[in-house]
Amino acid sequence: MVETKKTLVERLFAQHGGAVQAFLYRRVRKRPDVAELAQEVYLRMLRVADIGAIRDPEAYLFTVAGNLAKEHARYEHREGTRLPVDDPLLQEQLAELPTFAEDLDTQQRIKRLREVLQQLPPKCQAAVVLQYWNGLSYKEIAQRLGVSTNMVKKYLSQALVHSRRRMARLG
Within its chain, how far is the Cα of 130 from the centroid? Predict the structure, then answer.
């Protein structure tokens, strides 16, 4: 008796579903994402045009899961580098200078901050200086730099994230 595609996929998941989820968890480390990814593996297996052509369905199942985990990692990396520039909480944080370790005196912090800011691209540095040292608005900064106000927000967000990461490593 020849197994139908749906029956084969259901059998594979009945036998290896837990192993697929463990495999995905080792790569993703987020339980809610693992459940969604396992479901996507199941759907992708159902979409295979000629499942009978697959020599080793178990190996193929894990290949699909591995490829999906790689796709997920690329997506997470892309999403992790984006900042919601219109988020009120982020705007509030941008309005304040970051605070650093209490044990460093002011002169040391300023010196370190200058070193960290020197690592930023020129327009990003200019946006920080115009915002925090000159007190200009986003609109005024945008006009001076010849960019949009959204770009100014992105420059300031980038500077904030960079400064916090670098200052944390230095401190």
Answer: 28
Q: Domain range spanning residue 26?
A: 5-80
Q: Which of 80, 102, 136 is the last residue of a domain?
A: 80
Mean residue pLDDT across the chain: 81
Judgement on whether residues 40 and 112 belong to the same structural domain of the protein: no
Judge if 76 and 104 occupy the same domain.
Answer: no
- Packing angle, helices 149-170 and 88-95, rounded to 10: 70
Of 52, 80, 108, which closes a domain?
80
Q: What is the pLDDT of residues 125-151, one digit of tens each?
A: 888 888 877 888 889 989 988 999 999
* Chain CA centroid to CA 169, Å: 20
Are 116 and 158 in the same domain? yes
**Residue 100 pLDDT more than 50?**
no
Q: How confident is the model at residue 15 (pLDDT cuts 50, 70, 90)?
A: very high
